[in-house]
UniProtKB/TrEMBL annotation, chain A:
SUPFAM superfamilies: P-loop containing nucleoside triphosphate hydrolases (SSF52540). This is ABC transporter ATP-binding protein. Residues 8-236 form the ABC transporter domain. It comes from Roseiterribacter gracilis. It comes from the Bacteria. One of its GO terms (molecular function) is ATP binding. InterPro entries: AAA+_ATPase, ABC_transporter-like_ATP-bd, ABC_transporter-like_CS, ABC_transporter_ATP-bind, P-loop_NTPase. Keywords: ATP-binding, Nucleotide-binding, Transport. Belongs to the ABC transporter superfamily.
From TrEMBL, chain B:
One of its GO terms (biological process) is transmembrane transport. Residues 75-259 form the ABC transmembrane type-1 domain. This is ABC transporter permease. It is found in: Cell membrane. Belongs to the binding-protein-dependent transport system permease family. SUPFAM superfamilies: MetI-like. It is a multi-pass membrane protein.
Length: 265, 276
């Protein structure tokens, strides 16, 4: 019953790569329509693998993925994906990068460009549509990537540490903007981060992955902090601190495990 | 990440452009010094003017040639051969480079043969081409194509292979089918590599044309040089070389202009911020 209603449902997903490395082992996750879920885990625990499975870019070794009740076969047509590293096409201007998704889906170029301009305005890049990616700062490129993803109006947004490369101030600005855009038309969001504070501040639910290899889901926490939230201010509230304390107690061991492994290697 | 070799060169070029007049003055100074040395050595008899010609004689001959209509017919033929060799070689290189990059089986099977073909000294093919295609322009075009094709081919192959997997995954998530991936991702990526090899490709197209003419033709700049050599006319040979040099400079600056227009998206200086 729950599986058919979920926007995104991963059941017992295991990913073993050629060479025998198992990144995730038997992970299950349901994301309700309109829900903002963060996945937190130590470095190298297979968070990106998890997201690639949800996007349909990676076929799981075993387990099943359902999108709005339909079994996923090939790319996830309802998902927009914001990558961790640079994914803008360097040979296209910001405007063309944002418009290209609509264009290839059959929108007339003039219409696509008009919508792209509107989206660039919305993410604060209105004056920079003619810039090429190399002419923009890291923060501006992330905004452009956000617009590129959201202009297609995906029902599910997958975000892989989208703001991890940004400085703290820019990052909080972007987090607030993302929350504002999200609250306007509640898409399902799967947000991957290694930053627990970021996860709590933004999400409805935080899912903790264990240290890899063979990462598993080891904890789920409902975040019932009131919305709308300001990510900078909410960090000071008691509710936030209590949640942080409780989740960190669980995460700490895994972080230490992951750290011990990487420093040994 | 975007393109081979070019960034360092570009950066270096950018630094010297700041003092452009100085640079031009220095370059002119080197040229002048060379001609002076040449002049002094031949005028004093240290070098025999019969074998080494004299700079004034060469300049005089070149100026006289430039005023005749026959000269422009020869220049036009060499130009036509160069353009045809360049166009055919580039298009073939792009098409086959794409094909090989997108069909791993084809590239695996043909890999040793492509390498072997590229290792053949093209000059030895010139008489064969003359035999097959006659002494007209097409044997020269064929020689030029055999040179330019491989340069473009290898660059396109590399360009398609080296597309960032993240950009590719992102493009697929944006909904591109394989034809759209070709147009929006593979082609622009490959073109940046093609353009970085364009100067070399144009140069080789010209070499093919001139060497072909030199070895057997009835017109063209290479033919003129061969004619002059045949009668020990060293002034004519050096004059022909001077004209070729000027010709290459003009073509090369045209290529530079096209390149900077089409590759506007490529970073000219070091990138803005690191991403990880």
């Amino acid at each position: 019953m729950a599986a058919t209603q979920a926007a995104l449902s991963l059941q017992d997903v295991t990913c073993t790569f050629a060479g025998g490395y198992t990144a995730i082992d038997g992970a299950s996750l349901d994301v309700a329509p309109g829900e903002f879920v963060s996945i937190v885990g130590p470095t190298g625990c297979g968070k990106s693998t998890f997201l690639n499975v949800a996007a349909g870019l990676l076929q799981p070794s075993s387990g099943r993925v359902h999108v709005f009740g339909d079994e996923l076969n090939g790319l996830n047509p309802h998902a927009g994906y914001m990558f961790q590293s640079e994914a803008l096409m360097p040979w296209k201007t910001a405007r063309d990068n944002v418009a290209v998704g609509l264009e290839v889906r059959g929108t007339k170029r003039a219409d696509a460009l008009a919508q792209a301009d509107a989206w660039l305005d919305r993410v604060g890049l209105g004056a920079f549509g003619d810039r090429y990616p190399h002419q923009m700062s890291g923060g501006m490129r992330k905004r452009a990537a956000l617009a590129q993803t959201l202009i297609l109006d995906p029902k599910i947004v997958l975000m892989d540490e989208p703001f991890s490369a940004l400085d703290v101030q820019t990052r909080q600005l972007m987090e607030n903007e993302l929350l504002e855009l999200w609250s306007a038309d509640r898409k399902s969001v799967v947000f991957i981060t290694h930053d627990l504070e970021e996860a709590i501040a933004m999400s409805d639910r935080v899912v903790i992955l264990s240290a890899g290899p063979r990462a598993r889901i080891i904890g789920e926490y409902k975040i019932d902090l009131p919305r709308p939230r300001d990510v900078a201010e909410i960090r000071m509230t008691d509710g936030f601190l209590d949640l942080h304390k409780a989740i960190w107690a669980d995460l700490k061991d895994e972080v230490l495990k992951g750290y011990a492994r990487t420093s040994r290697a | 990440m975007h393109a081979p070799a070019a960034p360092e060169q570009k950066r270096a070029r950018k630094r010297v452009i700041d003092s452009r007049p100085q640079l031009l003055a220095l370059q002119a100074f080197v040229l002048l010094g060379f001609f002076m040395l040449w002049h002094v050595l031949t005028a004093t008899g240290l070098l025999n003017p019969f074998f080494f010609a004299t700079p004034l004689g060469v300049l005089e001959r070149t100026a006289k040639d430039l005023a005749t209509a026959a000269f422009y017919r020869h220049l036009g033929i060499t130009f036509l051969e160069t353009v045809l060799a360049f166009a055919i070689g580039t298009v073939a290189g792009i098409v086959i480079g794409f094909w090989f990059a997108r069909a791993p089986l084809v590239s695996a099977v043909f890999d040793p043969y492509v390498k072997a073909a590229n290792a053949v000294p093209r000059v030895v093919l010139a008489p064969i081409f003359a035999l097959w295609l006659g002494l007209g322009i097409w044997s020269k075009v064929a020689l030029g194509v055999s040179l330019t094709f491989f340069i473009v081919f290898f660059n396109v192959y590399q360009g398609v292979k080296e597309v960032s997997p993240v950009i590719l995954a992102n493009a697929r998530m944006l909904g591109m089918n394989s034809r759209q991936l070709l147009r929006h991702v593979y082609l622009p990526s490959a073109m940046s590599w093609v353009f970085s090899s364009l100067h070399t490709a144009v140069g080789f197209a010209l070499v093919g044309a001139v060497v072909g003419e030199y070895l057997g033709a009835s017109a063209g700049l290479g033919y003129r040089i061969a004619q002059a050599e045949g009668v020990f006319d060293t002034v004519g040979v050096f004059s022909g070389m001077l004209v070729l040099t000027l010709f290459v400079i003009v073509i090369d600056s045209a290529v530079s202009a096209i390149e900077s227009k089409l590759l506007r998206w490529r970073p000219q200086t070091s990138a803005t911020v690191s991403t990880h």
